[in-house]
């Protein structure tokens, strides 16, 4: 039956290829967290603990068992959807991730959409008018974007819009305390609030989101704008653009239907890369804006050798990347008919 | 209909202003096909881009007038120009595959033009696009409508480009090297189609080409351009038989044609007596039952199917065929860059097919068999100077160093006629002919016995091609080389080779002495190849320029033929 849907079959095949990657990630994240310096038993037994109580904690945590036994137990739990207890927060890791991952995703996706909306037109304009003020503006924005660290832009934005102008809310998390967080459906406050029809909360969440998203967007915008400009310049100098012009096609048709669609391929590649490093890089933004995201969670867990939390984080990120790569691949085939799934 | 007066086109470059076209005058009458002939850099393409006002950035019409049916093409508003392009004047280009949007269905690309010029609505665009495809004789147009350019052959892509150009019934068609890079039979099919459509619809046309033979066959009138100037204008028969300008004479001389010797391609002043080469009967390389099969996506692909032939010592064998016939695969197997599936390659009595291609670089026989590659530009490392390129085989295989190496390089440069000061230049600083010389010097550096020449002159202008072909003849005599000359150009093969092998679909369809195969071909495929090659009109009087006594060949201009 599947043979009659080559596309579906190809997608399933592509998903199946991700399985070994995930298995590898499980093994490596397990081993790496064990290789971390520091003894969690000492940490969790408390400052006043003696040898005996540390040993007691160790047994309670199952850390006295040999590594293979620990691994089998870990995988067994994983298969039941149990990522273990976080020792620092005291809650199941799965619960922590479910509340924090959407926060990070909401921030990153908003930033990325913002970046694309600004960067792609900027790149296109710069490519069509090389040497003009738009091109120079593009260059300045790109240089600023890559050279200003996110925590600096974050603090600068807070200083201007919160402290000096007072138009931004205090940079303390996803929602001001005067609002109640919306019912958990997707975990994305903007979507959840909209689903409830609670526009008051929606506006509150959006206000909180603007500054951190702008900070991250400024950072991710640079590579996208630069790639769009370069890809557009290449596309515009191709032979088929000359054919389109010689056929009298309008400037818009030439620019968008012919040049931009051909330039999109490298832009999508860049987008995938930018998304993955933005997820990692937003730790700093989360710290600056007290954003309860997954990045700050992982850093805190790492500092105290909270195995279960770190493993859960690495696994979630790995799955996210696998998914992201799949989406990018699918986008490729949608844009460019020359790329077939079954082609090696 | 179109009148061009004193057209000047300049480009702003970093080195300052460059004059690409300097005062060109010509007219195109209704129903006329005008040929613009010239070598690369003559400004022929730039002239046509200027008329369409699609010059690349930095290019401007500096002076002059271009009038089309009373419209001033130089001063018309961009909006009006857009209506003229595609609707009144349209263009077809060389390299058809690149000239189409790679990620848009060809049918939609035709629709774009129809819709732009309000020749179709959303509802009938599809039907009209299919009709336009049928007009350029695309079979099964309905199915091809959904194809992407990469799914079509080069010839089919050129038909699509024609369909786009002709969709809105323009009155003037500019064809810019429309068949460069296409196979010879495809070239004939495309050119015949374009000519028939032009005649049928009463259009005018400008055919831009470097191929004098092609221009003479399809044009009513020719202009010859050089360095942005028109140097000669007239009836093609007259331009051929009595070229007035020295440059046109040089071009006409350099065009390979029936009855001319390889020396006759050179300008008269530089001709030297042609060396006599006697090929022996002793076989140098014997190919027996050679087979190459690739694993393809849809089952095995039989690139070469059981072919056998022999190259004798001192012989030049021509391997002729169209793209995909297996001639390149065969030459790569002979030069041991590719492993054979089965069969033997007996070189000096030993089967070299047994040595895997991967290890052949270390084989002492590596130096005996060398190759000159097709594209002189792409086959040289852009970061290596000419000296380094020639030194490479000497260092690697002959372990030459220091003074010995340098003197050998300079000796080779002298042999191929490369001026010594050019040795330290990089490929981009050399002309096409100079790069070809570097490629040849590199191939003969180790005194090989057998040289495989893979279309060594395909990318060169005719006058340069003439020089390189003569160089190859001289080298063969001087060094006692045997050649396998791979080419699609029958005229060139006729000039150089003693023996010709014609390949089609991985098989040898005909072989024999060159003169015999060319003048009395037996196989229908060979016949069609020879018939498809453009036949330049024979040069006649004045007597002092006559090369061959039999100047009575009929002129093959199509007007006279019909």
Average pLDDT of chain B works out at: 86
Q: Return Rg of chain B in Å.
A: 25 Å
- pLDDT under 50 segments of chain B (min length 5)? 540-562
Strand content of chain B: 15-25%
Quote the distance from N terminus to C terminus of chain A.
23 Å
Distance between the termini of chain B: 26 Å
What is the CATH class name of one domain in chain B? Alpha Beta
Count of separate DSSP helical elements of chain A:
13
Quick one: how many beta strands of chain B? 20
In spatial order, strands of the major sheet of chain B run: 6-7-8-3-9-10
> What is the CATH T-level topology of the largest domain in chain A?
MetI-like fold
Write down the CATH topology of one domain in chain B.
Answer: Rossmann fold
Overall average residue pLDDT of chain A = 83
How much of the residues of chain A is beta strand, in percent? under 5%
Shape of chain A: globular
Low-confidence stretches of chain A: none
Task: Tell me the CATH superfamily of one domain in chain B.
Answer: P-loop containing nucleotide triphosphate hydrolases
Total number of beta strands of chain A: 0
